[in-house]
Design goal:
By secondary structure, this protein is α/β, with parallel strands linked by helices. Helices cover about 45% and strands about 10% of the residues. The N and C termini lie far apart (about 70 Å).
């Protein structure tokens, strides 16, 4: 990895500025491989990076207007980013932060860091190397240095939580202490540290999962298709009770489901209703919507812009990697209007082995490895109710 940076004491302080440099600059703390691809750093500034991260990670009640740089950066913000001075003029800001300082706030920061690392396609090995190198060189009070080095060592030996979670945890602690700057010995901050120090990281992960994996699923695709439309209200959807129950059973057990039927039978609306029903169970933390475009690779590239520059021979493996990332929970891939048989698009046969849940609507012969729900016509009673409903709406 190469030559170290100039040994300026300011380079070895735990500050928001130096933490940002460690993540984004190629030669700090030493020359090494990048943590993030260059394309994600275009247009980023020190202030915009921290504003977005803290906005996502801290409670909404904490005022972040300090980061508004529409005019110019204030002296207060400059001192906060560089942890210089006693920051007495930020007393109320620190009081608001300290009043909400608890393990739930810590898990919020962890989630924000995990989202950032995952979205920006970070390099875990590079981040581990940079963190360890940087921590060794930090100029901090002895007990704090021991805390960070001990935390890094225990995280490297941890096999009960994901590497993404462990990186998010270490970066969250560094962020909190960098935020406090000259107030690093704040009683409430050190009390929070004492509450978590020495406990298995899996315990904090369970708390994180309780507060954050039960949120509404995050949509990770860009392309919006028919499946993204809001489902009809229950008063306007008739029949399909048994089919919905069976579909829910399949997906609860971790499934891959084909919803099959002739054109116009209501496959897309059925899947909308099924997704609405299953959302109460909070099975998935990420959703990906794909509108089938005659070829699986083309359809995935349309849904995920980051895949468009990937060579065609690598596109499916990259899409699979994206959908199988389980650190932030479980992913559901929803594909609408699969109008090609597997024989015409051999790539489709690979979907059964992918490590995410999948629901597909199609008129075609089902794919191997998928459970099948065939939608036939509505019963006479359900058809009459549907007719009377439409008649009343006319």
């Amino acid at each position: 990895m190469g030559k170290s940076i100039n040994p300026d004491p300011a380079d070895h302080l735990l500050t928001l500025k130096n933490l940002y440099r460690m993540l984004t600059q190629p030669d700090y703390p030493v020359h090494s491989y990048a943590v993030f691809p260059e394309k994600y750093l275009h247009g980023q500034t020190l202030t915009s990076f921290w504003y977005a991260l803290l906005r996502d990670g801290l409670p909404q009640e904490i005022d972040l207007s300090l980061f508004d740089t529409s005019e110019r950066r204030s002296r207060s913000l400059t001192k906060l980013l560089n942890s210089t001075g006693n920051a007495g003029f930020l007393g109320k800001w620190y009081d608001d932060l300290s009043a909400r300082l608890n393990q739930e706030l810590l898990t919020g920061l962890i989630q924000a860091w995990m989202d950032r690392l995952e979205t920006w396609q970070y390099a875990p090995e590079s981040l581990s190397f940079r963190l360890n190198t940087w921590l060794q060189a930090l100029l901090a009070e002895d007990t704090l240095t021991r805390f960070f080095l001990g935390l890094a060592e225990s995280l490297s030996a941890d096999t009960d939580t994901s590497l993404l979670f462990r990186h998010g945890l270490l970066l969250s602690w560094l962020t909190l202490y960098a935020l406090y700057g000259s107030r690093m010995q704040d009683v409430r901050l050190n009390r929070l540290r004492a509450e978590t120090e020495g406990r298995p990281h899996a315990e904090l992960y369970r708390l994180y999962a309780y507060h954050h994996l039960a949120r509404q699923p995050r949509v990770i695709s860009e392309r919006q298709g028919a499946l993204c439309v809001q489902p009809l209200p229950p008063s306007a959807f008739f029949g399909r009770t048994k089919e919905l129950a069976r579909g829910a059973d399949i997906m609860h057990s971790g499934g891959k489901l084909i919803v099959r039927g002739i054109g116009g039978i209501g496959k897309t609306e059925f899947v909308r209703q099924l997704l609405s029903l299953l959302s109460r169970s909070r099975i998935w933390t990420r959703l990906a919507f794909v509108q089938y475009e005659g070829n699986l690779s083309v359809s995935l590239a349309q849904a995920f812009p980051d895949l468009r520059d990937i060579p065609s021979q690598n596109l499916l493996s990259e899409a699979r990697r994206l959908l199988e990332q389980r650190d932030a929970g479980k992913t559901l891939l929803l594909m609408d209007n699969l109008d090609e048989a597997a024989a015409q698009d051999p790539e489709l046969s690979r979907l059964a082995s992918w490590g995410c849940d999948i629901i597909i609507t199609t008129r075609q012969t089902p794919l191997e490895g998928f459970a099948v729900l065939t939608l036939s016509g509505l019963s006479k009673d359900d058809s009459e109710q549907l007719f009377y409903h439409h008649d009343a709406q006319a």
